[in-house]
Amino acid sequence: MKIANVLxxxxxxxxRRGYSFFVPCIDSSEAxxxxxxxxxxxxxxxxxxxxxxxxxxxLRVWRI
Length: 64
Prior knowledge:
Shape: globular
Strand order of the largest sheet: 3-5-4
Helix content: 10-25%
């Protein structure tokens, strides 16, 4: 998955309900759009929230 020209490797096959991951990003709206497109293609329900973790702004993505 590529967000803001940074390549992230997410093992979507192991992304189970209740799991989450954090993607550091400045433009969260663009990141949301990219992740939503992947989740839709894989028929996954997700919840995304802009958060600051350890002083780094990013997007926390949960599978629901």
